[in-house]
């Protein structure tokens, strides 16, 4: 496989700043070195220099971005020759945008899908945001660490993979069958919005303040360990949330519209903690081990709730509109309220003081029955 000598050419890049009502445009030379190797797949390698550092990256189209935290350096582009030549690299106000030229933007008409093997290698010292669109992917083998907020925005079958993210606020929005995989996130706040069959897999989440996870439209979130003083899980529209162990002070968990929430290990609300769990509209909610000072359960509209190994001082439940609840554990005080075809099965639930409120169309079965 013979190598064709690379060639060097210069082009102008513009750095634009706004000062009052005046726009200042600073132009710098940007040198590109391109080396082409003749082979069966017509592979090409381009090197883009003098791009500068950036705090955010936007990747549009089927491009595999391989990132390494560190000093900003050259950007290297590899892949099929007919595709690589049309990759655009723009650094504007610290936002690096990687895309295809408008004329040859990826589509079934313009570029053969088998040719879309473009890989881009880049570095910057303080990455704070990643946006991936149209089957783009981001991969790093090193921890991403910043003192600022860190944001992710994925759409249209894009992918993000990283071992560790440490930041102030971690925020991720994903839609249209996109996928996120992270081993560990450490942040003050952890805020997630998943839509349209997106998936987020993570091993450990450690928050100093708030954790807010919202799954919608057949999306999925899974974690082994989650720790935060305030934990909100909202699952709707046939989506699924599955977590091993949750450690918190206040838990607010909701499953609605055929969604599923499953805490496979313990939900531990420490320090006189409070747990509010709600299932509605054929939603399914399961907690296998629940420890809190106060537990409140609401199950309505044909929903199914299962709470096992409950340990609390006060337990209150409202089950209505043909929903059902299966309860196991113990409490000092328990109030069971059932209406409009609601069913409560608490034959393995023990409480020192029990109050039952129900009408004739409901079922409430206790350990004394």
What does this structure look like?
With 369 residues, the protein is mainly beta. 1% of the residues lie in helices and 69% in strands. The chain contains 1 helix and 27 strands. It has one helix spanning 81-84; strands at residues 3-19, 22-37, 43-48, 56-60, 63-67, 75-80, 87-92, 95-100, 118-122, 129-133, 137-139, 144-145, 150-154, 159-166, 169-174, 179-194, 199-215, 220-227, 230-236, 240-256, 260-280, 284-291, 294-299, 304-320, 324-339, 343-358, 363-366. The protein has a 27-stranded mixed β-sheet that branches. Strand 1 and strand 2 (22-37) form a beta hairpin. The longest helix is centred in the N-terminal third of the chain and has 4 residues, at 81-84. It is elongated, with a radius of gyration of 27 Å. Residues 1-11, 15-31 and 33-39 have low confidence and may be disordered.
Number of strands: 27
Structural class, from secondary structure content?
mainly beta
Shape designation: elongated
Instruction: Write down the oligomeric state.
Output: single chain
Give the biggest beta sheet: 27 strands, mixed
Low-confidence stretches: 1-11, 15-31, 33-39
- Elements, N to C (H/E): EEEEEEHEEEEEEEEEEEEEEEEEEEEE
Quick check: average pLDDT? 88
Keywords:
369 residues, mainly beta, 27-stranded mixed β-sheet, 1 helix, 27 strands, 1% helix, 69% strand, elongated
């Amino acid at each position: 496989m013979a190598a064709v000598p690379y060639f060097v050419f210069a082009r102008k890049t513009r750095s634009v700043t706004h000062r009052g009502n005046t726009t200042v445009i600073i132009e710098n030379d940007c040198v590109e070195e391109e080396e082409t190797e003749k082979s069966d797949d017509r592979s090409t390698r381009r090197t883009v220099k003098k791009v500068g550092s950036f705090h955010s990256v936007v990747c549009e189209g089927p491009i595999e971005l391989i990132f390494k935290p560190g000093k900003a350096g050259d950007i290297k582009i590899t892949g099929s020759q007919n595709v690589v030549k049309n990759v655009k690299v723009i650094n504007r106000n610290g936002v690096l945008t990687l895309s295809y030229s408008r004329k040859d933007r990826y589509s079934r008409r313009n570029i053969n899908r088998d040719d879309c093997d473009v890989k881009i290698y880049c570095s910057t010292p303080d990455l704070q945001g990643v946006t991936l669109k149209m089957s783009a992917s981001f991969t790093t083998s090193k921890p991403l660490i910043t003192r600022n907020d860190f944001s992710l925005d994925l759409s249209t079958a894009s992918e993000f993979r990283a071992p560790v993210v440490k930041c102030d606020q971690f925020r991720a929005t994903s839609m249209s069958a996109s996928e996120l995989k992270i081993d560990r996130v450490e942040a003050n706040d952890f805020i997630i919005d998943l839509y349209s069959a997106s998936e987020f897999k993570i091993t450990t989440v450690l928050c100093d303040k708030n954790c807010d996870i919202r799954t919608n439209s057949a999306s999925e979130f899974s974690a082994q360990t989650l720790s935060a003083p305030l934990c909100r899980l909202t699952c709707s529209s046939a989506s699924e949330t599955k977590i091993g162990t949750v450690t918190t002070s206040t838990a607010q968990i909701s499953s609605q519209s055929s969604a599923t929430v499953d805490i496979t290990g313990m939900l531990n609300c420490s320090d006189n903690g409070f747990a509010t769990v709600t299932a509605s509209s054929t939603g399914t909610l399961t907690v296998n081990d629940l420890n809190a000072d106060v537990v409140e359960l609401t199950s309505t509209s044909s929903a199914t709730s299962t709470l096992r190994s409950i340990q609390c001082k006060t337990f209150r439940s409202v089950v209505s509109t043909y929903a059902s609840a299966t309860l196991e554990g113990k409490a000092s005080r328990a109030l069971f309220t059932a209406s409009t075809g609601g069913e409560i099965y608490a034959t393995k639930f023990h409480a020192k003081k029990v109050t039952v409120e129900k009408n004739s169309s409901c079922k409430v079965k206790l350990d004394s029955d």
